[in-house]
Amino acid sequence: MALTGRTALISALGALFVGFAMPSWLGILTVQLALLLAILCDLALAAPVRKLLITRTGDTTVRLTGEASSHLTVTNPSRRILRAQIRDAWPPSSFHPGADVPDSRHTVRIPAAERRRLTTTLRPTRRGDHHAVRVTVRSYGPLGLAARQGSRHVPWTLRVLPPFTSRKHLPAKLARLRELDGRTSILTRGEGTEFDSLRDYTPGDDTRSIDWRASARRQNLAVRTWRPERDRRILLVLETGRTSAGRVGDIPRLDASMDAALLLGALAARAGDRVDLLAYDRRIRASVQGRAARDLLPALTDALAPLESELVEADARGLAATIHRRTPRRSLIVLFTGLDAAPVEEALLPVLPSLTQRNELIVAAVADPRIEEMAVGRHTPQAVYAAAAAEQTHAARRRTADRLRHHGITVIDSTPTHLAPDLADAYLTLKSTGRL
Predict the structure, then answer these.
(1) Side-by-side strand order, sheet with 53-58
(2) Is 186 part of any domain?
(3) Window from 225-239, 304-318, 339-353, 419-433 with minimum mean pLDDT
(4) 276 and 407 assigned to the same domain
(5) Residue 7 lies in a domain
(6) Residues 140 and 242 in one domain
(7) Is residue 171 domain-shared with residue 263, that is, in the same domain?
(8) Which is nearest to 73 in space by CA: 99, 108, 23, 27?
(9) Do both 128 and 252 map to the same domain?
(10) Domain count of the chain?
(11) Same domain (yes/no): 172, 301
(12) Is residue 187, in this structure, part of any structural domain at all?
C-alpha cells in the first residue's frame, strides 16, 4: 500500500535516526535515502503549477515620468496549499525597477480554492509600447526542500507616453493668447487677421489702418483694430531621420521636438486653430488629422508614444510632396529638423520655394547645451580648444539659420529646455503681427 505524504515523511525521519546507530557506510547510505525520500515527499505535497488560474489587469498608459501598476490575480483550484514565489517579468531595459528586483517578485501563500492579487509597480525609462514577458511560478512543498516550476504568458501591453514637461509653460502662454484674442485689443493689420472694431486715431498708429469712410462720418480719424483669425491650419512636421536620433543631454533630439510639438499643439487648439501632425523620414511614421480641440492632445501623445528615429537620410522631396497634399490651403508649417549644414543645403533648401510659396514656415531645431558650456571654457588648453570648436559649431549653425531666414522662414534654434516656450512665443508673435 502506498504511503501518504505525511506517513512517508515520518518514515524518512525515522530512517534518519536509525542511520546514526548503524556502521558509518551504512548510516551514510541510510541518511541519503531518507533525505531523498523527504525531498520526494515534499515535492509531492507542493501545489501543482499547471492548474493555477492567472489573469492580469492594470494600467494601459502612463507618462514617462510616472508609475504604472500591473495586477496579477492568482487562483489556486487544487486541494493543496500553494506556497510559491511568483515573478512578473517585464523587459528590464524599459523599466526601473526591472525584472530582477523585488518589486516584480512576490512570495504568496494561497489556501485551496482561494485567490490572491499581486501588484507590480512599473517605472518606465523609455517611451513606446512595452509587453509583459512571462509569469513564472515556483511552488514549494511544506518543508521547502523541493519545488515545482512553470511559466506562462499572460499578455498585457503598457504604452508609455511622452512626459510633456513643457506643460508648465501652458498657463502663461494661454494668458498671452487671451490678450491677443480680443480681450485686450491689438493694433495690427495684415494677412491672417479679422476686423474687430473702430477706435479713435492716436499718434503712432499705422496710417494703413485708418478707415477713411468711417472717419468722414465721425468727423475725426478712426482706425480699424484687428484680432487674430481663428480656425487657421497648423501642420506639425517631425523629421524622424538619423539627425533626430542624436542625444542632447539625457534625451534624443526627437523627444525634445515632441515636447515642443505638444505645447504648441495644446496652445493652438485653445486658440481655435486646426492642428495636424506628420512624422516622416522616407515614409509616414505617424499621422494625426482632423481631430477636435478636446481630442487633439490625447491623439498627439498617443501617436508620438511609439515613434522612434530611423537611421536613414530623410527624403526632403518626399516630405515636401506629402506636406503639399496635407495643406490644400494656406497653413503654418512647423518643421522640426536639424541645422546641420550639409542636410539643409543639399536636401531642404531646394524644396523651400515650394513650401514657402503659400505657407508660413517655422524651422525648429534642438541645440546642444553642451556646446554652450564648451564655448565659455578658458581655464585649460584643452578647454580653449573645446571653446574654439564650439564657436565653430555656433558659426556654422548661424550661417545655416541665416540662409533659411533669407527665404522668409522663422528659425528657432534653442536648447531642449527652451525650445518649447520659444516656439510658443514665435507662434504668438505670428498671430499678433497678422502673419498667421
Answers:
(1) 53-58, 68-76, 114-122
(2) no
(3) 225-239
(4) yes
(5) yes
(6) no
(7) yes
(8) 108
(9) no
(10) 4
(11) yes
(12) no
Q: How far is CA 223 from CA 183, 197, 204, in A?
A: 18, 8, 12
Q: Which residues have a Cβ under 8 Å from the Cβ of 397 and sit 6 or more positions away?
A: 339, 365, 367, 413
Are 266 and 384 members of one domain? yes
Q: DSSP code of 346?
A: I
CA 58 from centre of chain: 19
Q: Which residue has the higher pLDDT, 362 or 189?
A: 362
Place of cell 549644414: 341
CA 395 vs. chain centroid, Å, equals: 32
Could you tell me how far CA 32 lies from the centroid of its own chain? 58
pLDDT tens readout for residues 275-309: 999 999 999 999 999 999 999 999 999 999 999 99
SS (H, E, C) 213-226: HHHHHHCCCEEEEE
Same domain, 320 and 417: yes
Cβ pair 355, 320 in contact under 8 A? yes
pLDDT tens for residues 242-260? 989 988 878 899 999 999 9
Q: How high is the pLDDT of residue 299?
A: 96
DSSP states along 350-397: GGHHHHHTTSEEEEEEEPPHHHHHHHT--SSHHHHHHHHHHHHHHHHH
The label of the residue with cell 514617462 reads 64
Amino acid at 104: S
Question: For residue 380, is it within any domain?
Answer: yes
Do residues 152 and 395 touch, judged by C-beta distance below 8 A?
no
Residue-by-residue DSSP string for 240-257:
-SGGGG-EETTEEHHHHH
The answer to whether residue 20 scores a pLDDT higher than 60 is no
Tell me, yes or no, whether 208 and 241 share the same domain. no
Answer whether 0.90 is exceeded by the pTM.
Answer: no
**Mean pLDDT (the chain, rounded):** 85
Which residues constitute the domain of residue 361? 167-181+231-433
Residue 96 has pLDDT above 80, yes or no: no
